[in-house]
């Protein structure tokens, strides 16, 4: 291989194509043939683009927040085998920032009022949030520094280019005390947060302190970790700039870039292109061009972050000459739910390369959360090395065989059904799980699907029929849980529609029947199913948070961070259920309790003749949601029950 990554990717290609093996987040199938197959001739492969990029800044919080070195090492090895050669290394940056802030004269309480808790650092780093769920204990900084040393060492030893964080212009309020004449403006609130936990200060690009702080931080970071000369900074992530004047926007990007080159003359800026499609009413061509052209051409790489659904390169003349990476975002909030846009990713990168004067330099995987929908990521990784699209139905049949370690007609048939339905969303597709299962109940819930629900039910039947042959395969068991979970999610929508219809037509017996089945049988059965697999346990997520702590107090803080992120996402449900997960424990004690309250309120309304008021219900259910965050209940970290048996039981009861 021309690098460690190329050699590792070659090894995985041999394992995959000649030995029938498979590696993914949910498990590995590594039954090697004996003897190992010999190649008749040398096989050479070259990727069509320079980069295969991986990681979304949000995944640092939604997925990686509580990782130890063993988990990081596994991920980095998977990255190398997948051919990833460009990725962020963001751990430990708060320790360096703390050092810089102290050197500038800030006191500890001013720093503590700035950093968020560990589960929300991604948005602190982009200037969206401050203070929420913090502060960061001293032990956190030490552990993250230790992790970062190992992460960058491992990535570089495999020939990956690490992307380090740089200064985007956001500063703690304490800077204004130490430097009273500094020119900084307070940004507005982000998402549904007010200025209690948002409204961060942004330095004026012309202020001399912009260069002082930016260069000081980067020099300190490089001294600590070395550099591969690529840096990430996002000044306006989901934040409206103070002015739409192109000259101002160019000054901002130029200031960010100069603060990089002040520490490293070879600096290359890697920037997320999310802002352009997120706020199209602000980012017109003149504004986009101005921001991009504040940096010399070729010294910035833009991640076209949501290219499978909302490509930006098409309406910006290929980012007005700056190189870009065609990225598949795919997942929001680390939600569970079968989803894919396979046709878009099978053709999109090749269309982007053929675009007039294309500046595309690679492909990328940028999910907000990982450990879901393995197939889509395996497909995207393979496409990063290809010169033309794949024949998807035959590819997915081979995928099923490799994943389970044996050919099976029923399993392959199930995957072809899933491929054409749930994995083939077309048009502008946003994979944010809005199923009534994982949303706060109301009488106006979205039950629309982009696929034919019967295809998932049939895939469920086919997988169960393959369980006698494939039931011992760990990856098969994972997929059976996932497909059964998807079928149950569809069933929840059906019962919800029955509940709503019964309520609206004042049919109390039907309301009691549908509500009773949902609350007392379907949701508990789904919870049992999820509790039978280690990768679907709430206890695992909470325990990984507690394991990062060095004291009981830290453990409690980290657990509250972990619980809040997957539920309320903020003190008062500011981004409620954005990061919803379907986990054993969460389904029963959070979603289930909400549904129970909702059904009770509707029954009470019909009994008393008093109208149902959503506002009153929201206030009552918020106490339930908040109660879950603070309930301190211990959840199992080991699975219980037989996955195959529970899935079969659900099937016999509920298969439509």
From TrEMBL:
<dbReference type="Pfam" id="PF05089">
    <property type="entry name" value="NAGLU"/>
</dbReference>
<feature type="domain" description="Alpha-N-acetylglucosaminidase N-terminal">
    <location>
        <begin position="1"/>
        <end position="37"/>
    </location>
</feature>
<dbReference type="GO" id="GO:0004561">
    <property type="term" value="F:alpha-N-acetylglucosaminidase activity"/>
</dbReference>
<dbReference type="InterPro" id="IPR024733">
    <property type="entry name" value="NAGLU_tim-barrel"/>
</dbReference>
<keyword id="KW-0326">Glycosidase</keyword>
<keyword id="KW-0732">Signal</keyword>
<protein>
    <recommendedName>
        <fullName>Alpha-N-acetylglucosaminidase</fullName>
        <ecNumber>3.2.1.50</ecNumber>
    </recommendedName>
</protein>
<keyword id="KW-0378">Hydrolase</keyword>
<dbReference type="InterPro" id="IPR024240">
    <property type="entry name" value="NAGLU_N"/>
</dbReference>
<dbReference type="InterPro" id="IPR024732">
    <property type="entry name" value="NAGLU_C"/>
</dbReference>
<keyword id="KW-0325">Glycoprotein</keyword>
<dbReference type="InterPro" id="IPR007781">
    <property type="entry name" value="NAGLU"/>
</dbReference>
<dbReference type="Pfam" id="PF12972">
    <property type="entry name" value="NAGLU_C"/>
</dbReference>
<dbReference type="GO" id="GO:0048731">
    <property type="term" value="P:system development"/>
</dbReference>
<feature type="domain" description="Alpha-N-acetylglucosaminidase tim-barrel">
    <location>
        <begin position="52"/>
        <end position="387"/>
    </location>
</feature>
<feature type="domain" description="Alpha-N-acetylglucosaminidase C-terminal">
    <location>
        <begin position="395"/>
        <end position="653"/>
    </location>
</feature>
<dbReference type="Pfam" id="PF12971">
    <property type="entry name" value="NAGLU_N"/>
</dbReference>
<dbReference type="InterPro" id="IPR029018">
    <property type="entry name" value="Hex-like_dom2"/>
</dbReference>
<comment type="similarity">
    <text>Belongs to the glycosyl hydrolase 89 family.</text>
</comment>
